[in-house]
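Students often ask why we bother predicting the structure of a whole assembly rather than each chain alone. The short answer is interfaces. A chain on its own may look different once its partners are present, and contacts between molecules only exist in the joint model. In this exercise we take two input lines together and write out one structure for the complete complex. Read the inputs first and try to guess which parts will touch.
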Amino acid sequence: MSRLGLPNLGDGVGLRDVHFRHLLDTPPQAWGVDWLEIISENFLDDHGFAAHVLDHVAAHRPVVMHGVSLSIGSADPLDMVYLRKLRALAERVRPAWISDHLCWTGINGAVSHDLLPMPLTRRSLEHVAGRVKAVQEYLGCPLVLENPSTYLEFRVSQIPEWEFLGMLAQDTGCGLLLDVNNVFVSAFNHSFDPVAYIEGLPVDHIVQVHLAGPSDHGAYLLDTHDQPVPEQVWPLYALAQQRTGGVATLLEWDADIPPFPDLVAELAKAKDIRAGRAPHAEPVRPAARVATPPPHFPGDPGL
Amino acid sequence: MSEAVSEPDLAALQGWMLAACTAAGGVSEGLRSGERDALEVSAVVRGSRRLSPEDRLAIYAKGYLARLLGCLRAEFPALRALAGDQVFDLFAQAYIWARPPASYSLFDLGAGFPGFLEETRPRPVESAGSPDAVPAALARLERARLEARHAPGVETDLAHRPIDPVSVMTTPDLAVRAPESLRLLRLDFALVETLAVADRGDRPAVPPPGETYYAVARSRYRVRVHVLAAWEHAFLQACGTGGVSLQTAAGFAAQACELGSDEVWAGLLTWLPLAVDAGMATVRQGH
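Now the answer. The structure tokens for the assembled complex follow.
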């Protein structure tokens, strides 16, 4: 099934420098992944070994450009230097699509290098929609936006995040990158129902799913991408795949990164779950939803 | 979801949050400072039984500092090994708070760190080679290594070819230029051993003072630090990325170092082929 004209790329992992040598030394047919996702910013200004590896990878597999600095929700003007470089990289790499996050990263010229949460209001929806349209026009392709992990909500927020994303997608035609780990993290941190979140998104705009492992800080979960996907996330993944009928899956791992074959082994769980081979990963049924509290780690005191 | 809260201007809200999360001293300092008085944290951020509004902001503040510290640690491993984790983090934290990032790229974060270390030396007026100047010098060399890794280099330059000593002497119109990946430095310390020890994962000793000329160059995607003679350094400086004739660069080197022209040409005969192989220069026929 194709959404917004974008294909289901299959199962992929993030391209990280610790795996560069492995990817150069291993025949592409033995990589064990269908596609790779890059962090765009790691390649915008790199003309060395990383660029060499990227060209090699892009010659053998589809690549998606995933950014962290677009700052689509910021009140600052769009950073045209950044966008120009993003477009130039896209012209070189020919990515399957370009994605970033529903967030802002800085204001007044200062940059946090973090994915900061938006106030979810009608006004900010209008603001973000205008910028998404401008970026799509500049890049000449649909932008795909990911739901971030968040640790705070603004009191002024009026719209659940999934509805905000849904309205944004309907208004702008942008795609959605559903990070089921982020849904899990934010659902825990803000006590909402992750199933309602996934069921509330417009399914025809979801073009990709992210998987990752967060860390447990007791009172909150932190999106660290430094461990296997927790078992509570797999049912959410199964639900997302069931609802979409199958979209590209990407495993993110950014700290304490294991060897490439171990990443591929973790990614293989996604295939098993889609094939119904993991008993704990049955899709969460709407009927069971009311009785299902937000997922949490053992010992969590609750809100 | 709505709690009938009046909606602040988006720029004001974002400015408030960023200032609170990035202030020197953390969130409590950020919230205390005057410009944040206009917005009260509990009126802006939803709290819960598990986490107060301040706790929630603090998650972002901790993440901000940890992320940037992590980048500086990764970019300056030798300085970290020399100074020790605690002292390095003090340097790095002071830098982050004094010069918060303003670029979309974390690659730019460490660009000002060597200069910051120089400006904040305890005894900046002491003579060259004083021990408190070591961190800035080492940071400059490490930053040069990173820049050499990222810049366009000779690997994709179709004009970059080896040159043999005979050609250096017999080709009349050779032009020479420095690749963008080349970094040239003159530092007051002998730092090659410091880098080598740190690269092995050991703690280096304080390096001895001594004016040293360096070229940081990349070839076959490997970055190496080379110690140069003064005339070699002057020769590469004269080349620039635009390129000059070999005659011009050699003449500049001889003049700058008060050497005879024959002496420089004799040196070039053996050194230039090695420099080209190491990615310090590209030579081609025709100006």
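Check your guess against this: Residues 170 and 202 of chain A are 8 Å apart (CA to CA).
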